[in-house]
C-alpha cells in the first residue's frame, strides 16, 4: 500500500490526503475518550462500528437534501469525504435535559424541553470546550449571522431526521452534537454537516427501559460499551444480527 500523508489526527479519527483534490480519507480509531482525555480506553472494533453508523446517518441526510461532507465508505474503517473548512464550533441540539444542561439548570435528567434547544460550544479542548452565545460568535468572527442561521437550520433538520430514525427502532434521541464546515465553489460558500454522527456524539435511550446506548455507558461505567454500540447497530440494520465486531477493551494508562 502506498504511504499516505496524514493531515490531522484527533481523539477518535485520523484524516489522510484523499485520492483527488478536495477530498480526504477519514479513518476511525478504536480509542474511546471522556472527560478531556482523563479516561481513555481502546475498544477493539469500535472504529468499525462508528464508521458504519456514521455512513448510515450521513448517507441518510444526503438522501433528504441535508448536505454533508460524506462521499462514500471505502472499507471497514475508512470513508471518503470532502475537505471542508471546519467552523470552530460544536453545535448541540437538546430534546430532553441531560448532561451539562441538567446540571446548569437543576433539571431532572430526562425532563422534556418545551422545544429543541440549539447551543454552541467553542472547539477548544484546552478551555474545556466552553459554551458560547451568538454574541460571542459574531464578536470574535467565528461565524457570521447568515452562517449562524444556516447552522441552526441544518441542526434542526438533522434533529428531525435522526429523531425519526431512532424512534423507528425504539430509541429516544435525547441530544446530539455535530460539526459544520464550509465548502467553497469559487466565491460561493455552502455549509455542510461534517465530522461524524455516531453514538460517540449522541445521547440515546431505549424508549421502554431507559437503557443508555451511547458513550454515557463508558463515561458512567454503566456496563459494556461494546454491547451498547452493537445493540444500536443491530437495531438499525447496520450489522448482521449475529455479528460481534467489538470485543474486550484495552486500558490505557
Overall description:
With 253 residues, this protein is α+β, with helices and mostly antiparallel strands. The chain folds into 2 domains: 106 residues, Phosphorylase Kinase, domain 1; 122 residues, ATP-grasp fold, B domain (D-amino Acid Aminotransferase, Chain A, domain 1). Helix content is 28%, strand content 35%. It is built from 6 helices and 14 strands. The strands form 3 sheets. Strands 8, 9, 10, 11, 12 and 13 form a 6-stranded antiparallel beta sheet that branches. It has a 5-stranded antiparallel beta sheet with strand order 1-2-3-7-6, with helices on one face. The chain has a 3-stranded antiparallel beta sheet with strand order 4-5-14, with no helix packed on it. A hairpin with a 4-residue loop joins strand 6 and strand 7. The longest helix is centred in the middle third of the chain and has 23 residues. The chain is globular, with a radius of gyration of 18 Å.
Give a short summary of the structure.
28% of the residues lie in helices and 35% in strands. The chain is an alpha+beta fold and 253 residues long.
> How far apart are the first and last residues' alpha carbons, in Å?
32 Å
Using the 3D structure, state the CATH architecture of the largest domain: 2-Layer Sandwich
Characterize the biggest β-sheet.
Answer: 6 strands, antiparallel
Q: What share of the residues does DSSP label as strand, in percent?
A: 25-35%
**What overall geometry do the principal axes of the alpha carbons give?**
globular
Low-pLDDT stretches are 247-253
| CATH class membership of the largest domain | Alpha Beta
SSE order: EEEEEHEEEHEEHHEEEHHE
Q: Could you name the CATH homologous superfamily of the largest domain?
A: ATP-grasp fold, B domain
CATH T-level topology of the largest domain: D-amino Acid Aminotransferase, Chain A, domain 1
Helix content: 25-40%
Query: How many beta strands in the DSSP annotation?
Result: 14
